[in-house]
Amino acid sequence: MTADDPWLERLSEYLDEDLEPSARDACETHVAGCAECRRLLADLRRLRDAARALPARAPTRDLWPGIEQELIRTAAARPRRRWLLAFAAGVFVTLGAALAFRLLGTGASGIESVARVGEQYLLLLHEPEGFESGSDEAEHAALVARYERWALELGPRCTGGEELEVGGLELRPGAAEPAPSPSGSRVGGYFLLAVEDRAEAVALARTCPHLGQGGWIELRRIRTR
Fold first, then answer.
1. Three-class SS string for the chain?
2. pTM of this structure
């Protein structure tokens, strides 16, 4: 496997059986000869199965009404695109499940490895200028679905993620008012991962669909005291 491996970002599609028959056959042929892709595919299966094995846990209170009102308010103030429409409503459930997982930490060895979280990494998704130029609504919807699926497959490993507006503001020392960010490459969004160590953060980042779209990922470890 190389950094521009065409199948790298499609392993989750293969795992979910979303590939066309011809693409699925081609992916299987590639994986059979690529040890790194086989390892990443096995990691994805382990994470998916462990997430599915999470015990059901009733929330202590219903957070969705407040979230829904905030989403409505934000959409009315400034319409914007979102990567994780389905994921946003469930992020608090995921966080609660992750906490329960870490407290329970006495299950099968595969599940225990998912529960051992030692570090947090922020994945900053960089985009070159014109990153989505020329894409239509259908293409964007398909991309959104791929980001959603990737985040959901990580289960409790992914504790948050959001898209950022295209235009930003820069506040320089001594400036009376912030100025619009210059055009060019930008950070288009982020994901927050809870992982065991740096190696796991890098391995998971390699499976992110963002790399296959021509963007690049900056990994920043959350400093703890």
1. CCCCCCCHHHHHHHHCCCCCHHHHHHHHHHHHCCHHHHHHHHHHHHHHHHHHCCCCCCCCCCCHHHHHHHHHHHHHHCCCCCCCHHHHHHHHHHHHHHHHHHHHCCCCHHHHHHHCCCEEEEEEEEECCCCCCCCCHHHHHHHHHHHHHHHHHCHHHEEEEEECCCCCEECCCCCCCCEECCCCCEEEEEEEEEECCHHHHHHHHHCCHHHHCCCEEEEEECCCC
2. 0.50
